[in-house]
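User: Can you write out an input/output pair for a complex, sequences first and structure second?

Assistant: Here is one pair. Inputs:
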Amino acid sequence: MADKDLKTKWNLTPGGWNLEGVPAYQDEKRFTQVGRSVPRVDGPVKVKGEAVYTGDMILPGMVYGKIKRSTYAHAIIKKIDYSKALELPGVLAVITGEEAPNKWGIVPQAANETVLAIGKVRFYGEGVAAVAAVDEETAEAALELIEVEYEPLPVLLDPFESMARAGEVLIHEDSPKNILHEGEQVYGDIDKAFAECEYVLEREFHTNYPQHGFLEPQTALASYDPQSGQMHLWASTQIPHYLHRQLSIVLEIPMNKIRVTLPAIGGGFGGKGEASIAEFVASLLSRKIGRPVSVTFERNEVFFTNKGRHPCHMKVKMGLDKEGYIKAIDFDNTLDKGAYSGWGMVVLFYTASMLHLPYEVPNVRFRGRSVYTNKPSTGAMRGLGGVQPRWALECIMDELAEVMGISPYELKMKNAIESSHTCINNMFVPHSEYKKCLETAVEKSGFLEKHGKLPFGKGIGIAGGYYISGTAYTLYQNYKPHTSVMIRVDTEAGVTLMCAAADIGQGCNTVMAQMVAEELGVHYEDVHVQSGDTEIGAFDLGSFASRLTYASGAAIKMACVEINQKIKETAAGMLGVRADQLVLKNREVYSMYETKKRIPWEKVVEAYTSINGSLVGLGNFSPPRRKGIDIVTGNRVQGANIGHSPTFGFSAQVHEVEVDVETGRIYVKKVTEAGDCGTPVNPMSVDGQVEGSIMFNLGACLYEDQKLDANGKHLNPNFHDYKTPTTMEMPEMDTNIVESYDHTAPFGVKETGEGAVQPTFPAITNAIYDAIGVRFYNLPITPEMVLKALKEKKAVEASSK
Amino acid sequence: MFQLAYYEPQTLKEALQMDGVKKGTGKFLAGGTDLLVQIKRRKIEPQELINLKAIPELKGVQETGDGGIRIGAAVTVKGIMESSLILAGYPAMAQAAKELGTPQVRNRATIGGNIVNASPAADLVGPLLVYDAILLLTSESVQRRVKIEDFLLGPSQTALGKEEVLEAIELPALPAGTGAVYLKHGLRKTHEIALVGVSIALRSDGQGVIEDCRIALTAVAPKVIRAREAEDALKGCHLDDETLSRVAHIAEANCLPISDVRASADYRRQMVGVLTKRGLLSLGGSN
């Protein structure tokens, strides 16, 4: 269809949909609110320091809870004597693990954590008792009066040692090999494929043990009313629903007697994607004493309880045919689970699914195991399950391109998938602009002119990545919609969106307001958002898996159908036109044919509500389910949660680095990124997410690593010794949003918060190779590693002369 | 339970007469950036905190009349960074101040605290060593002057008497043509405890022959130390490549670094060489 035809009214449905899909944010006629760079709804109060976080809250009669933590990484608890603590004036209660023996865990099939350790501790810093006292100092003094007698057990800190010594030491009695779960996924004929390959490379990669580094530690305030049996918990969480559910299990109180409310939240990045001991302890203590109890972690407790990224030990083999097409990937992954299961099973299979994109791979074998160790548990962290395999695969491709004598860009372009791609594991990608991402990043950075041509010490590297969007399992067996929203319209409150989505700083309250405004034909400034409350808002699974913009968008569209229909019917009578010919836009209702017939939207609302009262619309969203039996082949379709993803976001990055060859320090000087996030609902927020993503993994690539001594004790549980990059480390950033519109997605949206973390590790690693000719297979890449590698390289070069 | 009495004396005399000083149960508080952390971690449990910030003798940077300057012990790190007298005459001090901690810490922390805390990684101490600083220690009855090198005894250990307070720091006049520099190495550009710091003061004649040199090494020994052998090796030489690498090697041999969670001893030692060389090079053109 000719370009001029695209913008005629004939291509618009009554609701304003353009079936041909002109890039939405470029078509001003279509979107007025989606695609606007608007300030965040939560911005001003945060900037002014007026935002109320859980730890800022004080309730009448409130007291403080503190947790006594284990000084062994693995030990039998022989005895806990807290009689002296109870005698201390100001102490109101002490609890131990027996108080709440029900096991919790976000994946119910593997739930194996108790609030406080029962019988045995499995990592250094595990909670063994908790105290409620009138002030924090008294609570701390009481902790010191609690006497715990331990019988130390051997400490297993390495997953391979843990498996090898399982006959002698078990971390969990019901896991005889010290393995949480192991699995294999095979697609195609891997051996045949490798035999036919022209280029085959095999490498081992080892990732590190970083943590999220959110600024607000876990904090919870619980208020139990003994009269009604009602529990109200304010908490810093990403998952009000799963927290709600697990509180119900642990406290043995029905969900309808528990309310979870989210005040302002200072970041999560996956780390608050599981319930926190702070929440359980506050609730248990409050129920015990009948007063509100506040529990806020110290920074070292954040490190002790961790739930950061899994260290992965990956053996990767990749084969290409003569032309450079990827024919096979063989991938073996050993994940360091730490002490408790948490998200472990999900992460294990995410690393399997992540092999299938963003390149076409016809034969794939995955073998993996998630292994218990006596470390603080690993869990969900931005880019869950993708970051580690992506690093390995993009680095090995860089190496393969070199072997072939072609540019890594050429190799990636050759293999990159396009829209309507079905992977061998049955994942379906309705839309991809990944090639456009690669092209844009390469063109804007001048990659081809620089790669391999910069002076020693300077280098440039490229990598790509992707992430799921809009998906999630319900982790317990249930097929209910993943998101439900309610929209109320009247003259008193204007437009109010009520839902339980968790704005943890990522900005969902802002983009949801934009999407509601777009759909109702009002302005973003007109929309109030009531989110993060399990009582006020309708059901939402939570903020993880980059699901919210997509899922909320779909539910919002659905909720608006009913409201818009009533607005149109009312306006039709007032204007004397057909309801189905009315357009809602810019706070007006007007006929799409007789554009002089128009009326302010507010007048219509007033007319409707004067007769009928408030307008309410309900909407919900369920992601498609692609797992099951393939009806053509009869094969069981594997692929974890990721297989249900309704769409995928993509990113390509070019990093330019300078290596100080005397000190070994690596400076990332410039990053050129191009991302396919579908329609950017708030382009300014997209830039923020992408820049944040790059800094997030720049940190984990070059600086961040939790270190433990031989006894499993944390050596750097503070921001002095656990180094995150500061703003001074921030490179020049050139982030680009490529033109993209996914017809299958609400407003054409995709994710942007996790796809852009994926290419950062490999782009930096490849750039370092370009700078100094050394490939690194361990993270983080520290100055000492650089100097050692340079010394070895020199020795090899000298001996070969 | 742990309780603290807080006092805010208005004169030095009043401060030194406090019960807590006499009994040794009190602690002087200036910026508090080290002290309060230690109290919070229960490393120390003083009964009294005596805030020194209101005392006039401890404030300000002044010229002494004989070409040197006097820095009040309670001058903040930010004050050091921005003092025109220091910037003009003792730039390595200002550089070290700029590299210390974060803006929030620099606004609070004081030069006196940085010295008395006696951390082997104290940023301001290296430049004080190469500038030959004299510390003015005052008790109720006596006042004495001690060279900073003699004052520092080891980690958290100093020659400060039980009833004494560090009142001021004197930096003597420098011979014309003296250049100085402080180089700090960490894993990131700011908010960093020095892995290694190198301070150098250098004076050469018109022909580029080095007449006098002082080198101090930070964070590579139980206290900030002078690298005397490296200094001696420089005297009478030109700053050519051979001299630079020879002196760098001697400096490496002059230090006693440890391995810890932040870096290995080998790496620290190697950085002493690199920073010494870079520091000398940066001063090469200053005569």
